[in-house]
Amino acid sequence: MFVGDDWAEDHHDIELMDPSGRRLAKARLPEGVAGMGRLHAMVGDQLGEAGDEDVEVLVGIETDRGPWVAALIAAGYTVLAVNPLQAARFRDRLGVSGAKSDAGDAHVLADMVRTHSHQLRPVAGDSPEAEAVKVVARTHKTLIWERTRHTQRLRHALRDYFPAALVAFDDLDAVDSLELLAKAPTPARAARLTIAQISGALRRARRKDVRDKAAAVQAALRAEQLSQPEIVADGYAASVQALLAVLTVLNTQVKALQGQVETHFGRHPAAEIYRSQPGLGPVLGARVLAEFGDDPHRYASAKARKNYAGTSPITRASGKKKVALARFVHNDRLIDALMSQSFAALKTSPGARAYYDRQRARGCGHNPALRQLANRLVGILHGCLKTGTLYNETTAWSHHINSITA
Length: 406
Prior knowledge:
Helices cover 63% and strands 10% of the residues. The protein has helices at 33-50, 67-74, 84-94, 102-116, 128-161, 163-168, 175-183, 187-191, 195-204, 210-222, 230-267, 271-276, 282-292, 302-309, 332-348, 350-361, 366-387, 393-405; strands at 2-7, 11-17, 23-30, 58-61, 78-81, 314-318, 321-325. The strands form two sheets. It has a five-stranded mixed β-sheet. Strands 6-7 form a two-stranded antiparallel ribbon. Strand 4 (58-61), helix 2 (67-74) and strand 5 (78-81) form a beta-alpha-beta unit. The chain is globular.
């Protein structure tokens, strides 16, 4: 039996379909225990009519996480996570009018798992430890991204009315910068800051060369600059103080959540293998583990893991033309972590450095060379996880180092 499950924030549109494509039942179910109970009843009614208790139930749904998915798996259903882009393109095959509805999407998902289940990926059977790492690692990274966004908003606001602050403070989201800007958010008030006030903020932020830096900050704040009318500057100052308050909270929570990331990552059985990889510390290692998961059967080969990571190239061939291109459809969080790992590995792994230099010598730019290095590191990680062994520099790079020196 095939089930299409189009979920929204508070409900699920369900359609049950038999192997011939005939609709068996459909319904809109509420989110939660009541909805799951009704779904089990719908499936049970159909299985009862068929008189076959061994029928496999395949569920197509456009998500791979959450309590609803966990309940489906616990009930013994085979859950296939369908990429929304795949579902949208499959919908276009069934009609060209452009019409769309939740019930129609449930029909599309049911028909998709009926005809293409062999090409869809079942939801990974990750352990609770890996799920916990994923939750805290993703939230930690999200907060960092939010801090970056708010810092850019702060930068744009200061550029419009207080350009001297951009000269005085190199790192706008640093503790000392936030403290001084909160104390003096307008050019007039900032110009009255004393050396003692500035030095105190620098010391609390544990800065070095406090005397010289305090003098430089004061000189920059008192330098001549283009300004706005006082009433406009006050308006900007009010908005800036709101941004400063948000950034202060984000800094606190990012630091607190980093401890949770390290704690949960340290509890995972594969943490030591991840930490042994070049360029992976506890936070970056946690992000990579979170996005790959720990289902031992999810990746049949290193190539499958590389394809999921988005580091391996794709080939486009037409006639006599054949080109290899980077994958632009990928897990943004995973590729971000892997590119950061490859950059860090340049300083910690001679083999990684030699591999990167070889790509640059062939004419690759910095980012393409890093991507190829990330692709190689994913293959190394796959081998270590498969065999349960720690990273070894000589074993990992012996073939490439020999080919370079030959």
